[in-house]
Write a structure and sequence with these properties.
alpha/beta, 10-stranded mixed β-sheet, 10 strands
Length: 330
């Protein structure tokens, strides 16, 4: 017969509440209950469009979920550093990932990613899309797309353009446009929209290729001049700016997009609860107006199946561009 010592009784007393806590947490996950705090990882620096959206929804989302929402910027390697951190996080409903469009191209541009884009992350919410804008410092000579092409042909490999990172749709679309026009531009990748925007306003790069969510407010403020936009039709807030299609390249379209993912294996109840709360927050008139009217984001607010289908299509389209033009990560 085993004898109960004072030490074993003390250990049991300590272990029992901890075991009960773990069991209760697991049960809460199954039931879709909200933890006390959650983290949204933005794998880009502060100031970019993804960071802006995350912070725009932070307050309302906290109220809807009854949980503290922490925004954590984890930039690096075109968003893959922060994405890898989330992919390796416990699937307990406390960690979420808000990505930009380079998420779909990273597997083709960046070799040896430490995660599988399709297997290690579960889709949560397809936020929406926006056209890209090519912009420049107002003092520079590039007023139209024709001006950019002419200068790049006259002085090959001297006209620079900044993007939010290698593999972003803005980067890939500019490569495609460069090939179609015969212009040779120099790509300057940044670790997010904020740093790219700062250098464009300062004139350190000749051009900035960014989403309307990033660029339109600075154009309205007079800090940048919009040269051309990549949507099928002109965005309302940039009605005076022609599209690439109108500028001699019919059928040319490219869109930025934003989505939310969770570590693979996150309980479906937790994904549904978080996704529904985020979608409801984005539908709030004040927030929806900020995104759709001011920044020209077309809100989709599609659930996991819609986001999965969209990302798969983006991987097919832009993966083909990466392979055809042998684009490498910078």
């Amino acid at each position: 017969m085993h004898t109960l010592t004072r030490r074993s009784l003390l250990l049991g007393a300590v272990a029992a509440p901890w075991a009960a806590h773990i069991q209760a947490k697991a049960q809460a996950q199954v039931l879709g209950q909200t933890p006390a705090a959650m983290k949204i990882v933005v794998p880009y620096p502060p100031g970019g469009s993804t960071d802006v959206i995350a912070r725009l929804v932070q307050g309302d989302l906290q109220q809807r979920l009854g949980a503290a929402i922490i925004i954590e910027n984890r930039p690096g390697a075109s968003g893959s550093v922060g994405t890898a951190a989330v992919a390796k996080s416990p699937p307990d409903g406390t960690t979420w990932l808000m990505v930009f469009d380079n998420h779909a191209a990273n597997p083709f541009v960046l070799p040896n990613l430490p995660f599988d884009t399709e297997k290690d992350l579960d889709p949560v919410l397809f936020i929406g899309t926006a056209p890209y804008v090519v912009a420049t410092q107002p003092q520079k000579a590039f007023k139209t797309l024709a001006d950019v092409i002419a200068a790049a042909k006259a002085r090959p490999d001297t006209i620079s353009y900044g993007s939010v990172g290698s593999g972003s749709v803005g980067h890939l679309a500019t490569v495609l446009l460069s090939k179609q026009s015969g212009a040779r531009l120099v790509h300057v990748p940044y670790r997010g929209g904020g740093p790219a925007m700062n250098d464009a306003i300062a004139g350190h790069v000749d051009l900035l290729v960014g989403s309307t969510a990033l660029v339109a407010p600075q154009v309205k403020a007079g800090a940048l001049h919009a040269v051309v936009q990549t949507g099928k039709s002109r965005a309302a807030t940039l009605a005076e700016v022609p599209t690439v299609g109108e500028s001699g390249f019919p059928g040319f379209e490219a869109y930025a997009w934003w989505g939310v993912f969770a570590p693979a294996g996150t309980p479906k109840a937790a994904i549904t609860r978080f996704g529904d709360a985020l979608a409801a927050t984005l539908r709030e008139p004040r927030i929806a107006a900020q995104l759709s009217e001011t920044q020209q984001v077309t809100l989709t607010l599609g659930g996991p199946p819609e986001l999965a289908r969209f990302v798969n299509e983006q991987m097919r389209v832009w993966g083909a561009v990466v392979r055809e033009y042998d684009i490498k990560g910078d």
